[in-house]
Each structure stands twice: as C-alpha cells, then as structure tokens.
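Structural prep section.
Before we set up the soaks we want a predicted structure of the protein with S-adenosylmethionine in place, mainly to decide which crystallisation condition to try first. Input record follows.
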Amino acid sequence: MTKEQTQREALADYWRFFAETECKGYSPLYEAITTACANSGEVMEFLASLSSHAHQPNLLLAAMHERVIQGLEPTLTPFYSGARAGHVGRLFVESVLASRDTLGQVLSSRFTQTNEIGRVATLAPALSVIPECDDLTLIDVGTSAGLTLHLDDCFIDYGSYGSLGPTGSKVRVQAQVLSGHPPLRRVPIRRRIGLDRNILDPSNSDDARWILACVWPDTGRLERTRNALALAAKFPSELIEGEALETLPLLFSSLEGPIVITTTWVVAYMNTEYRTHFSAALSAASQKRDIYWISAEAPGVVAHLPDVVSPKVEGPPPSVVGFVKFSKGQVSAARVLAHAHSHGTWIWWYDHS
Ligand SMILES: C[S@@+](CC[C@H](N)C(=O)[O-])C[C@H]1O[C@@H](n2cnc3c(N)ncnc32)[C@H](O)[C@@H]1O
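Run finished without errors. Recording the tokens verbatim:
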C-alpha cells in the first residue's frame, strides 16, 4: 500500500469511528452521511488533499449544511428538513464531489466553531458552585459567537426538576436531570467577556449562517440557535479576538476581583503543551485573586480533574463538567461536578462533589 492509500484508510477509519460513536443514536442523518463518506475513496482522497484541520467530519458537514441553507443543494434539502429519509449518503457524496473546488475554499478558511447554546444547561448549575460574591467576572475562552454568555437570558427547563431563567425567553433549552441534584441558583456576574482566536459576529449574516451550519440539522437545535443568535445580535457582548495564551494575561492584569473562566469544547482543540501553559496562566493570575475554571470538555483533557467513569447513556460520549480553583498560585480544589451530553440534553450530577 502506498503512503497516500494508508493515509486515506486511516482517515476512513476515523470517519467510521465518528459515525459510530458521535452520530449513532443521536443523528441518523449524519450517521448515514459520515458512513457513506468513509466508504467513498474519492471523498477521502479529496479530504486527504487538504490540511489536517479539514479532515474533521464536523467541518465538511458544516460546509455542506451551509450550502443547503443557501439553497444550493436542492437534492439534499428534503433530507435535512426531515421531509425525506433514506439514500442520503450517496447523494451527499455526489454533491461533495461535484463541488470540490468551492468546498475546498470553505474548508480552508472556516473552522469548526459550533456555538452550542444547549451547553448553558450544564454551565448554569456548575457556576452555582462558585462561592457567592458580587464582583465576579466571567471570561468564556473559545466563545465562538459568545452565545453562552447570555445564559441568564435563556429559559432552561429541567422538567419536573425545575427551571432557570425568564419563562418568556425565546431561547429555550431542555435538559433532563438523570441523577443527582444540580444546584439551580442564579449567579450574579458583574462583567462578561468572550475570547476567541476567531470571533464570529452574531450580527454578521455570513457568520450567523456559519454558526447555524455547524448545528446538526436533525437534532432539534436549529430553532433555539437562531433565537440565541438574534438575542446576541440585539444585546452585543464584550467579545475579544485573540489567542487565549496571549490575551488572558493582559485581561487578568486589567481586572479586579474573582474571575471564572469557562471553556466548553475548547481545550480539546489545544495540544498538550498549550494546555499546560493555559493552566499555568490561570495559576499565575491566582496570585492576585481566586480564579475558578469551569469546563465541559472531553474526558482527560483537563489534567487536574480526577478520572470518573462516565455513566452509560445512549448517544455520543458525554462531556466531563469540571471545577478547578486556583488560589495563591496553586490548584486548591479540583473535582468532577457532572457528566453531561455535549449539547446539554441531559446532565448526571454528582452530589458529593
Ligand atoms: C468547538 S468551538 C466551541 C465554541 C463554544 N465554546 C461552545 O461550546 O459552543 C471551539 C472554539 O474554540 C476556539 N479556540 C480554540 N483554540 C483557541 C485558542 N487557543 N485561543 C482562543 N480560542 C480558541 C475556536 O476558535 C472555536 O471558536
């Protein structure tokens, strides 16, 4: 086998794994599509010809979804809207191959920047763990379009367990509490800042369309994302574009009072060395005041957290919801608060934490 063939095979295995672990039991549409792509030598060859960041299934899925939203893929539209089922995989592959040049440009210039508003259902109880204070600053690192900064303006419905936020909000998120008693307390936040190496502007139509394109069409999240984008466009947040490691120290030096850092599906995109420096930056800043780090990330990426076996729940692998406190230059507490569906569909809270 040539080097190129081996690379294509490895990529196909990765796409099959994605279909099996991320899509199965959650998105039949994307399970069919990613399986068909994995089985198409031509699609794998096309992706392998691009830089490695474009190998990620979510990027091609978003690029094609954007074309569907733009009305450029009429044969796929009925499958994306749920009007038709079956045989979408073959049609998707044909559409990708027919638009290779245009897609290549999109895949080279865009990134996976899903801004998942459902994650507020996980963030809200996790923030409740922070000791009460009236001068808290929240910095959401890897904020994308800053949608989750608006968590207080969302109605988060935990079913019979209770709810948070204004009942009349158009941004409505439903989450099931599968275990434990997540605290539902509104945490006063004095200032909110979103930081990203590539800020997407919710009031810019191209950026807003890309955020929508990153949403998986058959998972019932498009409407709430549209509403969250409208909310964020109406009430703009303080969004700063920059690399986390370069920007955070400057921000820390300009802020007084305790700070909570949130990261949701961001650390997973940093390499091990970067993660170490990131953690060291938080630690250094805690010489001046306490720093709290609330994370919802893939297992194992926040090194301070103990290993906790995730509950067996059907669907994609859950996020680990972590709490790390830095005080006087050291980690003074670190625990797993919960496991949660990566889009906030359910939460499994650990009461002992
Ligand atoms: C998968 S998205 C998640 C967005 C958002 N946190 C959410 O949960 O919906 C990851 C985001 O992290 C940003 N990002 C990744 N590494 C970064 C870094 N080193 N500095 C700043 N932003 C970063 C990306 O640009 C992207 O917007």
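Observations: The two ends are 51 Å apart (CA to CA).
Flagged for discussion at group meeting.
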